[in-house]
Description:
By secondary structure, the protein is of the alpha+beta class. The chain is built from 7 helices and 4 strands; from the N terminus they run ααβαααβββαα. The protein has a single domain (about 25-160), classed as Four Helix Bundle (Hemerythrin (Met), subunit A). It has helices spanning about 1-15, 15-20, 30-50, 60-70, 80-100, 125-135, 140-160, and strands spanning about 25, 100-105, 110-115, 125. Strands 1-2-3-4 form a 4-stranded antiparallel sheet, with no helix packed on it. The longest helix has 22 residues, at about 30-50.
Amino acid sequence: MLIRILLLTLLLTVNHSSLAQQFRVEALSEVDRKYMQDQRDNIDQLARRHLGRQFNGEKRNDLDILQKILDQQLIRPEQTQLLQAMGVILGDALKKEEKLSWIIYIDRYGRSRALAIPTQDEVIFPITMISRRAEVGNRVDVSTLYATAQAAVAEIRKIIIVR
């Protein structure tokens, strides 16, 4: 009982904005790697079956396939796992071009897969970039989304250099 009172007192005295800033990162576990590969495989199978095309790690090809999947409504807004699988493909393209790394980002909201900008405490979350928009019925322009994420990475790098 005393421990609960002490914890409650501590929580009440902590500045809520500082809680939002607390996070830690971890390397992907083998389970994370397998889960992400399964996501890649699932979305690749969908593309092969419906479009006769496959993801190959080339940005132009992969972003074009993602756009076609969305434009042809091959995934419904409530199919969050498949939409997030598309985010893994989007993230892979960004990772390759910007030399980022997949990590696990853990904060008070939970555990997320994210892309880390090397030597920085900044991350971006490509896995949900498509799903958040598609789930609410917004049209997703994959190339614009990619360019926006790429610009955010450049801006973060620029800010860090100025410090």
